[in-house]
């Protein structure tokens, strides 16, 4: 089955700095990679996703990059703000109606004013 | 508004009690999931369903059971709660199409004393 490793487990940055969270996956057939943000006491919510036919996707201050050869993908947050403080999860799955998402263990991001 | 609803939001019960955590969605999704989230953040898949009368066990062994009699309803039952069942339980749903993101409920925080 799929195995997703996520690093770092915690990340502290100053407001305005950039933050990068990295994930690796083991199943070369995986082709869908979503990222979720979970604020304290709230539900995980999808913030961005990427499919294997593209190498990069941006949405305002967040971007995700994918390297299929190396089997890793990363989340980039620029100009961080205190409201970016949350736990971020990466996930991976293959193109099958019977597959389920495999999540990384999460990264706690703390943005200090 | 289409959403996924979990009740109760918080539950404190004594050891040995039978409990059912409710999950309903008005998203029109075929797939539904139960995740257990420990204090260390990690999300563990314990049950999932592809549709009515379909249920599967997830990656993490669980003493709970689920049923899927109606598309919109996916309750989770613990026949005899124990302190080791204390955790946050998150329900999620997704469309049946490939590479679709999960939509999570707000969760039930269960404490077994």
Give short descriptive properties of this protein.
heterodimer, A: 113 residues, mainly beta, 6-stranded mixed sheet, 5-stranded antiparallel sheet, 11 strands, 58% strand, globular, B: 113 residues, 4-stranded antiparallel sheet
How many strands in all of chain B?
11
Largest interface: A-B, 26 and 21 residues
Provide the gyration radius of chain A in Å.
14 Å
- How many strand segments of chain A? 11
Assign a percent range to the helix content of chain A.
Answer: under 10%
Q: In DSSP terms, counting alpha (H) and pi (I) runs of 4 or more, how many helices of chain A?
A: 0
Rg on CA atoms of chain B, Å: 13 Å
Q: How do you describe this structure in short?
A:
Chain A is mainly beta and 113 residues long.
Task: Describe the overall structure.
The complex is a heterodimer of chains A (113) and B (113). Chain A is mainly β and 113 residues long. Chain A contains no helices and 11 strands. In chain A, strands 2, 4, 5, 9, 10 and 11 form a 6-stranded mixed beta sheet that branches. Chain A has a 5-stranded antiparallel beta sheet with strand order 1-3-8-7-6, with no helix packed on it. Chain A is globular. Chain B is built from no helices and 11 strands. Chain B has strands at residues 4-7, 10-13, 19-25, 31-37, 43-49, 56-57, 65-66, 76-78, 87-94, 103-104, 108-112. In chain B, the strands form 2 sheets. In chain B, strands 2, 4, 5, 6, 9, 10 and 11 form a 7-stranded mixed beta sheet that branches. In chain B, a hairpin with a 6-residue loop joins strand 5 and strand 6 (56-57). The relative contact order of chain B is 0.34. Chain A binds chain B through residues 1, 31-32, 34, 36, 38, 42-46, 49, 51, 87, 89, 93, 95-98, 100-101, 103, 105-106, 108, and chain B through 33, 40-43, 45, 48, 50, 58-59, 90, 96, 98-99, 101-107.
């Amino acid at each position: 089955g799929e195995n997703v490793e996520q690093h770092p487990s915690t990340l502290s940055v100053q407001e305005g700095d950039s933050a990068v969270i990295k994930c690796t996956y083991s199943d070369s057939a995986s082709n869908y990679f979503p990222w979720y943000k979970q604020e304290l006491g709230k539900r995980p919510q999808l913030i961005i996703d990427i499919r294997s036919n593209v190498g990069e996707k941006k949405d305002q201050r967040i971007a995700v990059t994918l390297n299929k050869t190396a089997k890793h993908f990363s989340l980039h947050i620029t100009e961080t703000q205190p409201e970016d403080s949350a736990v971020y999860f990466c996930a991976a799955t293959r193109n099958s109606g019977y597959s389920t998402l495999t999540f990384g263990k999460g990264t706690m991001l703390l943005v200090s004013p | 508004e289409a959403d996924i609803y979990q009740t109760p939001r918080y539950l404190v019960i004594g050891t040995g009690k039978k409990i059912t955590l409710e999950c309903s969605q008005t998203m029109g999704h075929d797939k539904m999931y139960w995740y257990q989230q420990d204090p260390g953040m990690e999300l563990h898949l314990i049950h999932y369903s592809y549709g009515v009368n379909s249920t599967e066990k997830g990656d993490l062994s669980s003493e709970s059971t689920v049923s899927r009699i109606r598309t919109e309803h996916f309750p989770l039952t613990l026949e005899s709660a124990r302190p080791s069942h204390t955790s946050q339980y998150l329900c999620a749903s997704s469309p049946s199409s490939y590479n679709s993101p999960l939509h999570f409920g707000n969760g039930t925080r269960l404490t077994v004393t």
